User: What shape does this take?
Amino acid sequence: MTRTVVLGGTGYAGRHIVSEAVSRGHEVISVSRSAPKRPVDGALSVQGSVLDLAALGDVFDGADAVIFSVAPRGDMADATLGALEALISRLTGTSTRLGVIGGAGGSLVAPGGPRLFDQGYPEEYRHEAQVGIDSLAMLERSDSGLDWFLVHPAEVFGPWAEGERTGRYRDGGDVIVRDEEGQSSISGADFAMAVVDEIEQGKHHRERFTVGY
Assistant: This one.
């Protein structure tokens, strides 16, 4: 049985990943600072903070994958990168894969660039996008003893555009995924499917990829 730990398991992406992993028979631990308002049946909920990994005890022991799904908002706005750095240190040299949920801003708009972030990205989202970009750079600098992947969702992704589960998605590599009309979107459920597929299939090692329709 695959053991999957989701940090930020009550957030938008995290909650969907927890549900998808449970549905596939994973042993899932959902970590969040507050008790979930809507616990996912079959997942173990643990209250704790990514800012104090030691206090989480044996949560990471025997984990096949740890998913870092922590949004850089509120009091985590300037603390997310530090938390990720500590997690990288904790998992380096172990057999546990680290998956990081990034933002759309770091995706390339064409092979070789530029990034979506460099194409008039909305000011209100620039901080979150920059944290995602800096997270990728941190992962790329990490020791080879860490097996990681980072997933960029589509441009339209979030609770304001929940969408439905279609059971499909496309992997765009470094480049943002757009449909024939130039739109870039993905539902929470289908994004989670892509993340759990990666946990199970391991197609991306020490690299990022984009997901969309």
